[in-house]
Design goal:
Elements (H helix, E strand, L loop, with lengths): L7 E4 L20 H10 L3 E4 L5 H13 L6 E2 L20 E3 L10 H9 L17
Parallel strand pairs: 1-2, 1-4, 2-3
C-alpha cells in the first residue's frame, strides 16, 4: 500500500492505542503515539473510534491529548456531525485500525510501514559482529 493522498484513519483505543484494561486505561502500546504523531505530521486525519462513551470516553481523549494526539473527530465522521438514530452508526474513514481486525493487530511498526510504504533502515554492525557477514 502506498497512500499518496491524505487519509482519514479511524483508530480504536483499548487494545490498539493502549493495552486493554477497560474500564481503566492501559499502558501505551509500543510506538502507538509516535506512529500516530508521524501520521498526523504527514497530513492524515485521525478519528478516535471506540466503544467508550461518557466519562470513560473523556478519559481516553484526555489521555491521548496528554501524549500529544488531538483527534480530528471522536466517534464521528467529522467534528460537526450530530449522531441520531436515523442514520447508520458506522463512521466514514479510509482505514480502520483495531486490535480485533481479522488476523489480529500487526503492531504499530507494521502499520506505519504499510501506510507510508517505507521500511526501517538497518545500520551495519561494527566490531566483532560486523566481521561475520
Amino acid at each position: 500500500m502506498n497512500f499518496s493522498k491524505h487519509l482519514i484513519i479511524a483508530v480504536d483505543f483499548d487494545g490498539t492505542i493502549v493495552e486493554d484494561a477497560y474500564p481503566g486505561i492501559g499502558k501505551p502500546k509500543l510506538f502507538a503515539f509516535e506512529t500516530l504523531k508521524k501520521l498526523q505530521d504527514k497530513g492524515h486525519r485521525l478519528i478516535l473510534w471506540t466503544y467508550r462513551h461518557g466519562s470513560k470516553l473523556d478519559e481516553a481523549v484526555n489521555f491521548c491529548k496528554e501524549h500529544g494526539i488531538h483527534f480530528y473527530a471522536v466517534n464521528k465522521s467529522f467534528p460537526e456531525e450530530n449522531f441520531n438514530n436515523d442514520v447508520s452508526r458506522k463512521i466514514h474513514a479510509d482505514i480502520f485500525i483495531d486490535d480485533r481486525n481479522f488476523g489480529g493487530f500487526p503492531g504499530w511498526g507494521e502499520i506505519y510501514q504499510q501506510l507510508t510504504n517505507t521500511t526501517p533502515k538497518l545500520q551495519k554492525k561494527k566490531g566483532f559482529l560486523g566481521l561475520f557477514k
